[in-house]
């Protein structure tokens, strides 16, 4: 608490119930005690996991919630409500009123105070009627119907987890919670990264990565009401098939032993600076894992690097950057060096290269965003 610069003070702590990477949970009781001691606002982010708390058996992670000042979750993630929809509860709405309440003459009317006016709870004065679609879902399915949906998602995740554990080539580096399973191929990170790229390139399923304590993992999450046992088996068979093809091509044999992180770094100089791991997973530059395959064409990258030249007009810093790229042989994050790419070959060639390797329509948006850098 004494680490803040002079003149600043702590005001808020955000605890997470169900992290994005592995659906991990903070200890609300411990965090809450600290917040009460130092009079800090405790907000709880339960974006994904919050929907599961409709089932009593999953409320074990809510222990200590009484110490929180606010909690928010997204019904659009797992409660059959389409995007976007977020719910939030506050212990004392007066704190919001004191912060956001504005009453110029043009906002005053004879019915003021007769109903809750949410313009005093937030920065904007108006908002869309998102609650209506949530109301229809609750009316249509009821509490029991929604609980059945959540429990089915968890059951299917358990089924997928069992399939992964039964295959000696894979490991699950983080405990499964609720409907999310994170898995990877045993061994070096590049194996799992290549697997993700191929899965997305084939287009039969969409895989999203995460990084857990230096390990590259694939997140498998079940949220749809239409997902069935057959879908789980189909997805798993696809993963097994692509993995077998990949390991055969690379002539890799998976052994049942843990590979220390230190050994991974020593064997692969590019560890930690690959196309995805060069940035935090799901950062704005990456957007999602499907773009990992956009620039995965050796001939295109070779053309890019061949077109990079060092000129006497370049600054010393620029010359060091170019030499570093050409000499290291690492697969850097291409978006962070788009200025060099555009200098190396014409924009039309870059765009054509992207379009020929794109696997989603959004790649055009990536090109337009990078073109102006």
From TrEMBL:
Top-level EC class: lyase
Cofactors required: pyridoxal 5'-phosphate
Pfam families documented for this protein: Pyridoxal_deC
Chain positions with N6-(pyridoxal phosphate)lysine modification: 77
Keyword terms, alphabetized: Catecholamine biosynthesis, Decarboxylase, Lyase, Pyridoxal phosphate, Signal
Keyword Ribosomal protein: no
Family as reported in the entry's similarity comment: Belongs to the group II decarboxylase family.
Subunit relationships: Homodimer.
UniProt protein name: Histidine decarboxylase
Organismal lineage: Eukaryota, Metazoa, Ecdysozoa, Arthropoda, Hexapoda
């Amino acid at each position: 608490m004494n680490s803040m610069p002079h003149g600043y003070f702590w005001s808020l702590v955000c605890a997470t119930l169900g992290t994005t990477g592995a659906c991990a949970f903070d200890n609300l009781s411990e965090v809450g005690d600290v917040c009460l001691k130092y009079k800090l606002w405790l907000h709880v982010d339960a974006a994904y996991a919050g929907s599961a708390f409709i089932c009593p058996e999953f409320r074990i992670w809510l222990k200590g919630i009484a110490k929180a000042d606010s909690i928010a979750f997204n019904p659009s993630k797992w409660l059959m409500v389409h995007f976007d929809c977020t719910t939030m509860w506050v212990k004392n709405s007066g704190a919001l009123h004191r912060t956001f309440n504005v009453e110029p003459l043009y906002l005053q009317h004879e019915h003021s105070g007769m109903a809750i006016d949410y313009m005093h709870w937030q920065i904007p004065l108006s908002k869309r009627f998102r609650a209506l679609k949530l109301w229809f879902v609750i009316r249509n399915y009821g509490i029991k119907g929604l609980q059945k949906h959540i429990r089915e998602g968890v059951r299917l995740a358990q089924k997928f987890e069992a399939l992964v554990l039964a295959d000696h080539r894979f490991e699950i580096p983080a405990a499964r919670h609720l409907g999310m399973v994170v898995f990877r191929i045993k061994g070096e990170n590049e194996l799992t990264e290549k697997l993700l790229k191929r899965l997305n390139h084939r287009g039969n399923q969409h895989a999203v990565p995460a990084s857990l304590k230096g390990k590259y993992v694939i997140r498998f999450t079940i949220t749809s009401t239409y997902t069935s046992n057959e879908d789980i088996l189909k997805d798993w068979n696809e993963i097994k098939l692509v993995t077998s093809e990949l390991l055969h091509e690379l002539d890799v044999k998976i052994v049942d032993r843990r590979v220390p992180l230190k050994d991974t770094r020593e064997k692969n100089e590019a560890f930690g600076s690959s196309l995805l791991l060069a940035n935090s997973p799901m950062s704005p530059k990456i957007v999602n894992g499907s773009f990992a395959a956009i620039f995965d064409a050796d001939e295109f990258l070779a053309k890019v690097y061949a077109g990079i030249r060092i000129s006497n007009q370049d600054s010393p810093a620029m010359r060091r950057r170019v030499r570093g790229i050409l000499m290291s042989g690492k697969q850097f994050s291409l978006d962070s060096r788009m200025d060099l790419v555009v200098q190396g070959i014409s924009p039309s060639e870059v765009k054509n290269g992207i379009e020929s390797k794109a696997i989603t329509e959004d790649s055009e948006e990536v090109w337009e965003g990078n073109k102006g850098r």
